[in-house]
């Protein structure tokens, strides 16, 4: 089949119209970011144009060939590329089934529905996460019930989860925040004991490991996002549901395709949430490079830690360690607050247990983000921006504090760890194309800003 334009033009077209865009990991931005356009920054927080140029040096021609493969096939939905990617990504994650869908939010919503969650059921979610986790619960007709998180990891705190269980609870959604897996062993035991559905929100954890297993294989099901800035990102939106249960997978597949597996075979009321062939073809190529990208992220995280450790010792910031732990223990009051959250002393004890469970030679974060905690975050971010360094905030407002969820009645102060994290977290550039010298420059600039503040 003759192409309407030569192959090099295909690559040039996509680079000029898409790859040269700069993205934040999602829509969360500080005032300092908004004041400094990413194009004016010497080192933007994320530069997808640079990423794909870097990718092309390691996988020359892979993306243009993938585009041509789909273009010449004449099949753009529900074809060979999606089928192949589902099989390949399932094998990578260590699961038996993979169902590709339109985006990560759909993946969570459909996983809940496929697992039998009904309108009015309660689903426990982290108080500190991107709002899409909560939105998926709401879109499934369920009620998100927030549990607070551990200060060192930002992942679900088991003690607080226990206090939020009611007879209406049907599921728990732990988020593998920033690419670090939640403490799945205890959460799995709790879910099994209570007969609850456990669904991983693995949108930031492609390739992360927990006790020797990859994210996506740690629960009844897992939801992935392939948003362009993810560790495994498409050229647009995309998502997937991983599960070992073939019945679960078939139901999810039907729900994502008008309730049918075959045309006119509508056994369920379903919607339209499908990954297209172009995105699947791109993801197949990027999957072959994911382990190398994640290894580079781990190297960069270690550089950050080494360069920033003196500032931690001086008490000027808190950082995650390269093996996924964090050295700090936040001081806590012991009284139960008026909203009924878990006593902070209990959370502190659970934090220590979570850290023990989520570290070791068989547990590795995917380092989707490298996030530090600082006081006066906006001033620090502005100082970095003035030096040409882009940053992000993940996330500036917990979902329970947004107008979208005001009707649930969770007042400010009811989930104190999440609220404190939202005031202090600052994401530094963390993409595999970065050079170690650039990371050290970011750390040096951050250090100067911290010293100037004090």
Task: Explain what the structure shows.
There is one protein chain. The strands form three sheets. The protein has a seven-stranded mixed β-sheet with strand order 1-9-8-5-4-2-3, with helices on both faces. Strands 6-7 form a two-stranded antiparallel ribbon. A two-stranded antiparallel sheet has the order 10-11. β6 and β7 form a beta hairpin. The model is unreliable at 1-37 and 326-348 (pLDDT under 50). It has 16 helices and eleven strands. It folds into two domains: 73-287, 3-Layer(aba) Sandwich (Aspartate Aminotransferase, domain 2), CATH 3.40.640.10; 290-453, Aspartate Aminotransferase, domain 1 (Alpha-Beta Complex). α1 packs across α4 (62-73), α12 packs parallel to α16 (436-453) and α14 (377-386) crosses α16. It is α/β, with parallel strands linked by helices and 454 residues long. It has helices spanning 7-19, 31-35, 48-58, 62-73, 80-93, 104-114, 132-139, 158-164, 184-194, 246-255, 277-287, 290-313, 344-357, 377-386, 416-424, 436-453, and strands at residues 97-101, 122-126, 143-147, 169-172, 197-201, 209-210, 213-214, 221-225, 239-243, 370-373, 425-428.
